[in-house]
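Q: Two folds, back to back.
A: First:
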Amino acid sequence: MSNSWGFNQIDADTLKEIANIGSGTAAGSLASLLKDKITMTVPEVTTPEFKDLPDILNGADKVVASVFVKIYGDIKGTMMYVMDENSACTLTNRLLNKKNRSLYDFGEMELSVITEIGNILTSSYLMSMSSLLKFNITKSVPYLAIDMAGAVLSVPATEFAKVADSVLLIKSTLKDNTYNMFGFFILIPDFGEI
């Protein structure tokens, strides 16, 4: 099926600008939270097919932390921020001064922190999109899932496969003086409601 919503209607330069502004805002918000300098590399913006996402996330069997928000308004769908296990543990350990080695070691505090980080980061991108495109966009409360990438993606796949084939993918790297932390923003439009 074709992308009736507008990845093909929004030019590549605008998508890159959304990613750049969103990245800068996200890095600034995270730096305030960590009370440390955080930079974000120039993000890579692509529109891959949904079926290719597990491979892009380094395999369906890789454990990830994913924060989902439903989005409403001029764009409807789901936005996810997905971090690999090492990046999610590194970021959470930095904030809480802990030494978790696995996402499955996370307690209530760690789960709350990673959910809020995902909420902050997705909000940064959605605000940039709203501002640049002059779109009215609101979002739901965030929902956290910790599981293998294939399982995390299976929920949106159930609905998404019915209506379209491509997603907006923004790959970013957060950096401090010691660590690189990798994450993916995935915007899954709901063409059926537009």
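A: Second:
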Amino acid sequence: MAERTVTVVAITSEEMKGRIIGREGRNIRALEAATGCDLIIDDTPEAVVISGFNPVRRQVARQALEELITDGRIHPARIESLVRKAEKSVNNEIREAGEQVILDLGLTGIHPEIVKLVGTLKFRTSYTQNVLSHSVEVARFAGVMAEELGLDFNIARRCGLLHDIGKALDHEIQGSHAVIGGQVAKKYKEHPLVVNAIWSHHFDIEPTSVYGPLINAADALSAARPGARRENVETYIKRLEALESMAMEFPGVEKAFAIQAGRELRVMVAYDRVKDEGAMTLAGEIATRVENELTYPGQIRVTVIREMRATAVAQ
């Protein structure tokens, strides 16, 4: 995945690297302990790399390190003080970003905790596409489509903005971001239509209204826009080919298609070689093998299709 997991901080001189490390490494250990990120100080000229999977922690570490470099006084007590200050600054930035987006979209009555999660998406990327910008795009697309279809414009925009809030928490909670987002929306008493649309926008569960497929379409429009996301084409094709070839190795499989950018695997089986019960077992076996042998983002749904067609021609 082309997920951004490092932040680069420019430094004024090579001598500053030694001061950041400190005597016997005490300064760099204090920074890593306070921020929860790794600091990489190598031969790269005039740069320090902050590495970590949590984008908010990386932002806190970046702000604290930049202020330490500007201030010049680098010691463990000063580091702890500036990290606390940076945490407050980043939390304010998150809240303001969430409030501004909700104001721009004309939405009301959103729980403060959800506002905070929306703001957190400002620091999250997916295939290098900023998730907050993507969520705003999806909200606008969904609103336009809802008006054309005679649906509730505000519900559609609300669903679009909140569809990826699970990505603000999927570093901390295991599971699909759609499921996490649906659980969070339900916890904070969002409208049932919004909860279901979030939960079902990748069809993790069956949608109970048209808003689930609507958000899926708006999501695809924003993500598939030329230049929106970046993934190595060769890696992408190899991943899809590996999915299809793995399914083809199972007995009775006639064809296999990786669809929805590799989020779903459709497997067609020979009706005379695989029975109905066998199709259910086969889906589980393929899913288990994919889980054990392949590396992929999110979840992959395996659908096994078995059908018999009888054709006769009347002369």
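Q: And?
A: Strands lie at 6-10, 38-40, 47-51, 125-126, 129-130, 253-259, 264-269, 301-306.
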